[in-house]
Amino acid sequence: MKKFKEIGLILLFSVVVGSVVGALTVVFGKGLLLVSEWRGSYFLPLIFFLPFAGLLIEWLYTKFCGTSRQGMGLVFDVGLGREEKIPLRLIPLVTLSTWLTHLFGGSAGREGVAVQIGATFANWLSRFKMFKLFSEDFSQIALMTGMAAGFAGLFQVPVAATFFALEVLVVGKLAYETLLAASIASFTAYFVSQALGLEKFSFFVVERPAFSVVIFMKLILLGLVFGLVGYGFTMLLRHGKKQMTQWFPSTYRRIFFGGLLLVVLLLIFHQGRYSGLGSNLIYLSLGEGKVYTYDFILKLVLTVLTLSVGFQGGEVTPLFAIGSSLGTVLAPVFGLPIPFVAALGYATVFGSATNTLIAPLIIVGEVFGFEMIPYMFVVMCFAYHSNFNQSIYGKQERIGWF
């Protein structure tokens, strides 16, 4: 009877987490779309306020944050049992600060926010008395369940979100004990997000080459290139944060002067082309629009700078943009269809930078069509081993030969 009761509580917990987190990601996602639209319409007046928005973000985190300042680092600490609690105030803090970053032109993503929202709510809910029936490990299961719900609610890729939560904390181990809870929460968040009108990005890749030895070799080379770019992003971000801390020990000076530099660079480089998520680059890449050979480099550098000086957001959507725009450049070189290579780059650079394997494989299927998975498997296998086992998540653990 106890086992059935535990399963029932897991189902209840997962549905509640998926429902609430799904709704919260809709609020965050729609708010982000709105501020991005405003930025697109009034870029020139808004961009000049980016340094001052940075000061406001830093004040909010200094005044109200506490341990929440660690962001994804705190999520990893709780997931790995080093910490117990994530303050609930992290949800409004990270949401508002990310909106400010995007409104005034910073180059950042959104997945980190969604994952933090899900992890924070699940961690808070798991502390209720009714869930004390479980073993001590339930806090880790709860956290991964929330992470999956946040990713699924925002990106509407429930299967990929489930495996992202299962594999991202510890490289070399899949947390199968979380599979039931994470999958239910992911699909619940997906259905809630869909019902509340948050649109999913999808693009079916029609033109795919027939498998051959030549195509196989080309996929290997693409995997190596995408993997190295993901590794480059990771190392630049890591060293960028370290260098900015050394140059500007004061967090207020760091974000203000970093914001000033961003204003200059974003104005020089096509006046906002590289602001925000990078969705514009993704659409251009897949629609065979005008993509410059340097787009992926500038998006990479400006995203690293935005996050290094203290602005808030995530890395995943910029990684999607970097990968897809790089794929557009590589496709003619390899004699392959542009949307095909852009789709592979979209997910592979993300997988390389996050040091995950299964999630990017499934993302390709859920976004571009499951017929893409065999090609992605070859590319991702080589990308996964050309990132030198590095990750944008500095507190990610590795076991075994990893």
UniProtKB/TrEMBL annotation:
Residue ranges that the Swiss-Prot or TrEMBL entry lists as coiled coil: none
Protein keywords: Membrane, Transmembrane, Transmembrane helix
GO molecular function: chloride transmembrane transporter activity
Cellular component GO terms, alphabetical: membrane
Principal localisation: membrane
Annotated membrane topology: Multi-pass membrane protein
InterPro entries from the UniProt entry: Cl-channel_core, ClC, ClC-type_chloride_channel
Location relative to the cell: Membrane
Transmembrane segments: 7-29, 41-61, 141-166, 210-234, 255-272, 292-311, 318-346, 358-384
Pfam families documented for this protein: Voltage_CLC
Stored PANTHER family: CHLORIDE CHANNEL PROTEIN CLC-E (PTHR43427), CHLORIDE TRANSPORTER (PTHR43427:SF12)
Protein name: Voltage-gated chloride channel protein
Originating organism: Vagococcus silagei
